[in-house]
Structures are given as C-alpha cells and as structure tokens.
C-alpha cells in the first residue's frame, strides 16, 4: 500500500509542477482563495523558507538519505495507517528529490519547482503538502500508540535508577 501511495503522491507532484511551469509565468500571484491560497511559479534552490539555498547539493544528499530510510520504513509498515503515513512521506520526498536530481541548473543541484502560495508567508508544492500530511498522520499514530500502551505511561527505568531502588525497599 505504501508503494502505491508514494507513487501516486510523487506522480501527482510531478504532474502539477509540469502544469505550473507551462501555465504560470512567475511574475504575479494568482489568487485561488483570496489572500489565503494562490498560485505563483518559483524555483527554490533551498529548503523550507529558502533555508540552505547555498547548499543545494547537501539538501540533495539529505533527501536521498530520507528516501532510503522511508523506503525501508514503508516496506515494514506495521499497519495501514503507517503505510499511508510513510507512503505520503516517501512520495513527498521523492517528488522534491526528483527536482533536486533532474531540474536545472545541473544534476544533483536542481531547484525545486514551487507554485502554491500560502498567504504571503511561504510558497511550496504538492510534495510539501504530502510531507505535511504524512508527518501529521505519523504524529497522530504515535500519540494513539502511546495512549494505548500502558508501559508508555510508566516507562521502565534502567537498572539502578533511584525509582527502582525505592521500589525494592
């Protein structure tokens, strides 16, 4: 299931980026939902909020490592919820990694195509949406597991911990 989700997410991301590149000129923001959501073409050499724009190759390596880690996590997802979460994360990372590897200016240092503006705060793409939803779902799943697992409420203390010594008396 995670592979299907990731493939669909990365595919939709790449299709929407191609459409944005063909239809938007980047000169002006086109509102979709007033000031809340709009369209504007941008090419980002950095990460969120343009951070790391001088280290595009480092971001490519980090995205490649995240891709490998998420590949492993997706193949071992213990439930449908985790398969969906890792699939969304895997698809989002893949979408932006493809840009970093294949987009101009050169291999491994490509700029990510962004086109979704959120107010006047930041600009992103569908891969960023998948990453956000995947991370949010993973957080919900982790909280749910913690609430269901009574040992999470009372973690086991390491041997010799003062709490264990008090309980032995």
UniProtKB/TrEMBL annotation:
Residue ranges crossing the lipid bilayer per the database entry: 48-70, 118-143
Gene Ontology molecular function terms on file: aspartic-type endopeptidase activity
Tagged with keyword Hydrolase: yes
GO terms, biological process: proteolysis
Cross-referenced Pfam families: Peptidase_A8 (PF01252)
InterPro entries according to UniProt: Peptidase_A8
Similarity comment: Belongs to the peptidase A8 family.
PANTHER family according to UniProt: LIPOPROTEIN SIGNAL PEPTIDASE (PTHR33695:SF1)
Full protein name: Signal peptidase II
Species this chain originates from: Quadrisphaera setariae
